[in-house]
What we know:
With 415 residues, this protein is of the alpha/beta class. It folds into two domains: 59-303, Aspartate Aminotransferase, domain 2 (3-Layer(aba) Sandwich), CATH 3.40.640.10; 307-402, Aspartate Aminotransferase, domain 1, CATH 3.90.1150.10. The protein has twelve helices and 13 strands. Helix 2 runs antiparallel to helix 10 and helix 3 packs parallel to helix 10 (294-330). The longest helix has 37 residues, at 294-330. Bound molecules: pyridoxal-5'-phosphate (PLP). Pyridoxal-5'-phosphate (PLP) is lined by residues 105-107, 138, 140, 182, 185-186, 211, 213-214, 245, 257.
Amino acid sequence: MDKPDATKTRLPETGVPTEALLADIDARQAREPDVHGARLFGLVYPTGRHDLEELVLAVNNRYLFGNALNPFKFPEVARYEGEVIAMTGGLLHMPDGGGGSMTSGGTESILMSMKVNRERALARGVERPQILAPISAHPAYAKAAHYFGMELVRAPLDARYRADVNAMRGLIGPSTAVVVASAFNYPYGVMDPVAEIAAVAAEHGAGCHVDACVGGFVLPFLEDLGYPVEPWDFRVPGVTEISADVHKYGFAPKGASTVLHRDADWFGHQYFVFSDWPSGLYGSPGVAGAKPAAPIATAWAVMQSLGRSGYVDIMRTTMDTVEKLQDAIAGFDGIELVGDPIGPVFAVKSDTVDLYAVGDVMDDRGWHVNRNMDPPGLHMMISPAHATVVDELIADLTDAVVHHGESRGKAVRYS
Length: 415
Ligand SMILES: Cc1ncc(COP(=O)(O)O)c(C=O)c1O
């Protein structure tokens, strides 16, 4: 990371004119990856849909300065939030009695769910509640354990890179507050056996959180398209919470996730309420106090604008790109997919090809391909806009597999 510009670390004595500021910002932004360029994999999810972006910009302009903290002052923002929760709940078959809220992102959704599960365990007398999660689960569970004084117990994966249910059976105990399943996970795009994990959790009176931060706005549409999708949402008995991010494959700008609870009563445990100060009752269902209104309004608008058929169409073209890319990869000697990825996220591994060196060549050609550490390899998260560059991507990848040197040993970092 570059150091801050020394000329910019002090508040200027007098303001910088707008034109100069924007020129400076343009110059700085030019040093960052183009979020529309379809050369990033993950972090951003470009659709290539100009009309959708225009809508997002228009709604963003209207709500940029709003604050969702106080639903009485911004009642329509509160209603957008309720409607996003209801629409997402409908997609994921949340029962009528369920509830939830929007948060700033997948991490906060997971944090809030873990907090609720901690309360649930404390209420039944557990002293140090545990989170039982597969090693492929997102670091947000470790963060939750760290923040909330919980213990993270990690389960190994089976030979197909899914959470090993038998191992989970051996690790669950009276202190387990919640068991985690990913639908699907980040490292490999592989589904955990949600129904089996939820059953183990239910047998022990523990909650079951399904992390659908990535999959929540993918799997319902894959199901519509006729892909075989194992049951994973609230239709599965024992699933108590689901996180699903609108700011990933829901195609809303950053700052929009949902956390849903089967039981509205437990949703109540998300709230922190305090009135013992001079300014009266204060309450909020998440980590944030002041809460940006624009991500809520834009998420609502994107969902309304696309509708189910819009998402299905986008997922169809995205999966066409995925399949084209995976067919090309299947033709490379010694390179294979890790496990059985279900959707637009997958990883590749190899015993014979130095994939980090392949990644270096791709970097040199302007592709921001992520690395995986275990197994060593490359990680890809395909967005709709990759459809426009897939032939170039395959050509570069093919060339990189054939003509690569020694790996430069770039650090493998979550990105
Ligand atoms: C499976 C999964 N869960 C949770 C998260 C966390 O989401 P966020 O980065 O929005 O906090 C991610 C992020 O990539 C993820 O892939």
